[in-house]
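Changelog entry: the Ig-like domain-containing protein record was regenerated in this release. Current contents:
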Amino acid sequence: MYFCLYFVLGLLSSKGCFSADPNPEKVVAFAGENAILPCSLKTSGSDDLPTVEWSKEGLKPNVVFLYRNGFETFEMKNQGFEFRTSLFMREVKNGNVSLRISNLKPSDAGIYQCLIIRRNGSREATDVQLVVAAVSDPKLSVDSDENQRVTVACEATCWLPAPLMEIVDEKGNNITDTVEIQRADLTECYTVRQTATVQSHTAR
Ligand SMILES: *[C@@H]1O[C@H](CO)[C@@H](O)[C@H](O)[C@H]1NC(C)=O
Ligand SMILES: *[C@@H]1O[C@H](CO)[C@@H](O)[C@H](O)[C@H]1NC(C)=O
Ligand SMILES: *[C@@H]1O[C@H](CO)[C@@H](O)[C@H](O)[C@H]1NC(C)=O
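Regenerated structure tokens:
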């Protein structure tokens, strides 16, 4: 009876530990590259292999990596992360269960949670915020019409966050006429195109 009560209390108290972190650690990485989201066991119980569940807030299904009984378990894994997530297997025995995400996409940005479940039922959760950045070389083009007017266009394809651009004249004045910002959806990168029209070929 005493044992039973203790067990129930133990479950309740360990559930209490599972709360969102108000200031998660932030990791910034570039689209197309890899990111390492840090997570470590606070106390290393040497002979006990914990279950490690990495999940992403708002994703369905939300599991991006599940490690159980010493192996990756695939059933619950989100397909968008297939072949893209792994632990550093040599580091796991040292209590390092950091997650590697490869070939980052802009939509991978968000809050991830590392949940460690011990054999004895104790749980430790850590949140990590992943920020995905993207840049490319802006392209400049120049077109003139029959009236000798010249349109200068500058396009920055797939940036995260959106770039701040300005077309300026010799004196540094902002002469931008039009600004177009495209984003496929909230999780994708920004493509920004700006133009300026000037009256003469000799303007700089
Ligand atoms: C479970 O084990 C870990 C490490 O071995 C220890 O820190 C923790 O206090 C234990 N939790 C319970 C509820 O016994
Ligand atoms: C965990 O392992 C990774 C990969 O080797 C390394 O980059 C990271 O610094 C390690 N973290 C800790 C806390 O040792
Ligand atoms: C430059 O002018 C454009 C068009 O009027 C405007 O949208 C943009 O915010 C300006 N840029 C700066 C840095 O003031």
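The longest helix spans residues 2-16.
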